[in-house]
Request: fold
Amino acid sequence: MNVLFTCAGRRNYLLEYFKEATKGSGKVIAADMSPTAPAMALADVARVVSDVYAEDYVDQILQICLEEKVDLLISLNDLELPVLSPYRKSFEEAGIRLLISEQEVIDICFDKYRTVQFCEDLNLGTPRTYLNLEEAKKALESGELSFPVVVKPRWGSASIGLEFPSDMEELDLAYRLVTLRTMRSILSEASKEDAERSVLIQELIDGTEYGLDILNDFNGKCVQVYVKEKLAMRAGETDKSVLRNEPELEKLGYRVGNALGHIGNVDCDMFEKDGKYYLLELNPRFGGGYPFSQMSGANYPAAILAWMENREFDFTTFRKTYDQAFAKCDTLIKV
Reply:
């Protein structure tokens, strides 16, 4: 079983988990635009590619798959998902499975406004969200919304461009700043779809933050949910976390997974405030918080590889070690 990670970046832990799950029966391959990406040093094979928006990017990835006899491709980047998803058939005809959901699922997750609509359709709590500055100002004047608020890119990734204005003057400045940053960053390509409405103003939910790893099988059925309380964040990624026994949140995770119908893992961000849960974001991939689930007893890579071999997976092998905190730390690797 040969597994390719695209946009491998710093996800060394995922490569290690899949290496353990393959038990030496295949290669773990990494592709990234940077030859010094840390995950490249850990892979059995490392391939340097162009950026995801290059005209021949998909052709490059397919060529690597053919040359390395890749069975499973796992993308680790939000921006790459909508690039690769339309070519699912081409990869499948070559015998390569993409652990990437259908385009509709990716759109719901990547477009933060569609995420809000998805939540509203399911009667799930979600922050009040506004597509333009004037709507948000009217809501603030009427008392429907209150400061501080969140200003962020509609098609965002890795917490790029987040601002938290506390009054009208700051809101005007923050909106202009986020708009400029969005159009000058790697998010500009995705934001061209609706450039005039590419920045959102959102209610700030101040409460306990949770990260859910929601695992669906290849048919889009939810089979496992791990609920972690986030203790600390760094650069938009979970830095410290602890698995919690929260049956209601776990039940919500199953509900979200079955309604979304994704395949593989979804990294779901939720807040609890005054006894109510709010869904903030969905990322249809392995997220930076997954290692905390693995350390607490999950093994999503083992389940995915079993499904690749058309085997049922025994989830009784999973455990859930609650209330034991884990923290990431920096390490050096020769690149």
About this structure: Residues 214 and 225 are 5 Å apart (CA to CA). The chain is about 35% helix and 25% strand. The chain has three domains: 3-100, 128-203, 208-327. The mean pLDDT is 96.
